[in-house]
Each structure stands twice: as structure tokens, then as C-alpha cells.
Amino acid sequence: MPTILYLAWGRPQRPRANLIQTLHTVAALTSIGVSTRLYLPPVPRDLDLPGFLAAMGVRGPIDLRGTWSLHRRWGGWPFAVLHRAELGRARAVYTRVPELSLVLARARVAHFLEVHETGRLHTEHKIGPFVAACRSGLILGLVAISIAGRDALVEAGAPAGKVHVLPSGVDVDAFVSVPPLTIDDLAHPRALYAGRISYDRGLSLLEQIAAAGCPVHLVGLRDDDPRQAIADLRVSPPVAHAEVPALYAGAALALMPYQPELRHADSISPMKIFEAMAAGRLIIASDLPPLRELVTNGENGLLVAPDAPQAWLAAIDWVRNNPRAALAMAEAGRQRAVRFSWLARARGLCRLMGIAP
What we know:
CATH class of the largest domain: Alpha Beta
Shape: globular
CATH topology of the largest domain: Rossmann fold
Number of helices: 16
Number of strands: 13
Helix content: 25-40%
CATH architecture of the largest domain: 3-Layer(aba) Sandwich
Largest sheet: 7 strands, parallel
Order of helices and strands: EHEHEHHEHEHHEHEHEHEEHEHEHEHHH
Number of domains: 2
Strand order of the largest sheet: 3-2-1-4-5-6-7
Strand content: 15-25%
């Protein structure tokens, strides 16, 4: 019987950030000796699981099980019924899916919920049931991925003592092979944006930066396309997560131009920030409250108003003119990344769940 049952809705057929974070969290828990079973919706019968995990950057096997009873179309109820005994025997039940949390609460299964989009819960008027479940003890703890997210949950009525903060993480060792930056790299910077490509994630800014003569490489799924061809703007399809470190070999700057209208801009903890830190690249990010928790302006990166294109161009000009100072910031970020390893996150989860690794 595993110590932790982790329930998720991510699908290997479409491995997005939520599934990548889940896989690495489960792998880290497993690696520190906490047996963890991950349940997902049904996976393809011909899935090469070791190959899939390797492509996601997961080292070593994990207990991953796909089941029809977790298919989204059923809403989670069949799983709660069919696995009732298993859910009752586990030391801890954990999910980052609000819909599954409500099912578990209605089935009287005590559990932990990781909350990624506090704004959406407010907008959709759904935060009340989670606060009630937390107060009744059916949700044993709420895990926010940012301080801003925690504050929003407490403001909504969640007991402060039951709301914890655990940011996303990074496999620091995977980025050791990334070549270190040089002064010349920063005097003539090339920029990388790796993630979903959309206007609410700053595509317009990225276009303007490229049009001003700074080469920008966009890598990821496209929700929106650039409005026009720009010589210094290159767009590539997403790569397997294990290939992300190699992307940073060709870049000096990591751009994070999230816009306030992004649905979860009020509580994000982007893996790409930790990855850029671990790669030793200089981060230029939007000055949003959750990002201020990770990037200290002038210390381990630069923060810029998200809606001020000229300020972004000025920040890049500053890097060109001050490459030594920029290099010191990038190195400070690399050193800070160690605090956000997946192993550190796993140990934090164990502490809040009262489990000794």
C-alpha cells in the first residue's frame, strides 16, 4: 500500500506543464523513500512508459497507473467509489485538481489540495466549497504555489494555519551541462521564451523586442501566431521536457513577459523561471506580485512593467551596456535555483502532510 495517493487529470498524450510538475513531484517523493502512487486517466495501451518518463526528464521508475474511472467525462466519482478502500488506507491523498477535491470531500475522504488558479475559483464563485471543506477537516491542507496565492485563499476565508506555500520546482542537475554565460553573450544577447505562446503571455512584447533587433526564439505550443514575419523572431514547436536545458545553450536572456490578463497571473509559479535560473540565464520578467517572490529586481534578474514595451527594450539595452553586472545577476539566479529543487519540494510536502521521508 503506497503512503501517498496522488490523483491527477493530466494525460501523457498531451504532456503540458501541469502533468510535468506532477510527474516530477511524484518522482521526487519516490526518490526520498516515500512510496507514492500516481493515478491518471486512461493512458494508451501502447505507451512506452519508460520512454515517456525519460522524455519528460523523470529519472527512475514511478508507480503510475491509468484508469478509466478517472476520465474527465465521469468527473471523478467512479474512482472515489471503486477505490474507496484504498483511499481510506493511504496515509495521505493529494490532488491539484479542484473538481477531484470536491468529489473527495463529498465522499468524505480527507485529502490535500494544491491550488494553482485562485483567481479562477473566485471568478467562477467556486472558492466557498473549498474553504468550507478546509474548515470541516475534509481538506487537511491547501497548498498554494505562491505567497500571493496563499494570501488570496486566506482572504477568501481559508484558515491561515491550513494554507501552505510550495512553489514549483526544477531538476537542478539537468541544467549542469548548460554552457556558462560569457560577457560577450550578454553584450550581444539572444533571448529565449519557452512555453505556451499567446498574447496574454506577452507575444506582442516578444514581437517588438525582436523587431528592435534582439534575436528572440519562441519554443512552445501556439495559442496565437505572430502577426507578421520578423527577421529576428524564430518560432519552433515544443520540445520534450528533457530537451529544455539544451535550448538555453543558444540564449543569454530568458524572457517572461506575462500579462495581467493571463487567467492565473495572480498566483503563478512558472517552472520556466526556475529552469532559467538553473541554466544560469538572466531573467527579464513582468513585474507581477507572484514573480516578485522569485525575481528580485537588480539582484537575480530584472522586473519590468508588463505593458511598457519601451521599458523592456531599455532593460535589454541595459544588459548590453552592463554585461558584467548582468552576468552577476544570472549567477545569483543560478545559485538561488537550488532552493527550488524538486527534492526540496518533496520534503516540504512531507512536512506538511506529517510524513517522515
